[in-house]
Amino acid sequence: MPDLYYVPGSAPCRAVLLAAKALNVNLNLKLVDLHHGEQLKPEYLKLNPQHTVPTLVDDGLSLWESRAIITYLANKYGKGSTLYPEEPRARALVDQRLYFDIGTLYQRFADYFYPQLFGGAPADQGKLQKIEEALKFLDTFLEGQKYVAGPNLTLADLSLIATVSSFEVTDVDFKKYSNVKRWYETVKSTAPGYQEANEKGLEAFKGLVNSMMKK
Question: What domains are defined for the chain?
Answer without folding.
Answer: 3-77 (3.40.30.10), 88-213 (1.20.1050.10)
